[in-house]
């Protein structure tokens, strides 16, 4: 997808604003990895309950991948930085129904510039694919499925031929500030009192 910046609208419409906010929220959620569940031993009474049937050979089950527990501290820290630089939480929590599109666009510009500053300061991002968006590409057998998500009519096995919709992003380096011992990461924006 080629973007002509000279034809960009001078104000931001609600759809693009919502898309920008959804993208930022998804980025924050990606930093928070799923947590594992704690397994409890089976007691004698529970061992007598029926067990789920074992899958037949026609339906092999996926191998169990161990999950590691993730601390929410890094996600909370990123949210704090986005609030400091972009007033991100203030913007998302604000009821925008009483504001004009021009007012929302002006506020979105502040959120965009501050969010870009935060990402540029603390992360080194790289596009996963170098081809132009909307071009045809071929994915060989053994392609990295964590880097490329197939959409549409996915049938058969690689190689796959399709249209690159989004280049994707990966973080080459994250350099979040260190947190002091005992710091409460859940306070992402302290209340302010002017005296």
Description:
The chain folds into two domains: 110 residues, no CATH class; 39 residues, no CATH class. The chain contains four helices and four strands; from the N terminus they run ααααββββ. With 195 residues, the chain is an alpha+beta fold. About 4% of the residues have low confidence. The protein has a two-stranded antiparallel sheet with strand order 1-4. A two-stranded antiparallel sheet has the order 2-3.
- Mean pLDDT metric: 81
User: How much helix is in the residues?
Assistant: 25-40%
End-to-end distance, in Å? 52 Å
Number of strand segments: 4
Overall 3D geometry? extended
- Please mark out the parts with pLDDT under 50 across 5 or more consecutive residues, or reply none: 33-40
Radius of gyration: 23 Å
Quaternary organization: single chain
- Main beta sheet, described? 2 strands, antiparallel
Give the spatial strand order of the biggest sheet: 1-4
Number of helices in the DSSP assignment? 4
Short précis:
By secondary structure, the chain is of the alpha+beta class. The chain has two domains: 110 residues, no CATH class; 39 residues, no CATH class.
Task: For the structure shown, list the relevant keywords.
alpha+beta; two-stranded antiparallel sheet; 195 residues; 2 domains; 4 strands; 10% strand
Topology of this structure?
Layout: H1 14-31, H2 73-86, H3 88-93, H4 101-122, E1 123-127, E2 136-139, E3 160-163, E4 169-174
Antiparallel strand pairs: 1-4, 2-3
Helix pairs in contact: 1-4, 2-4
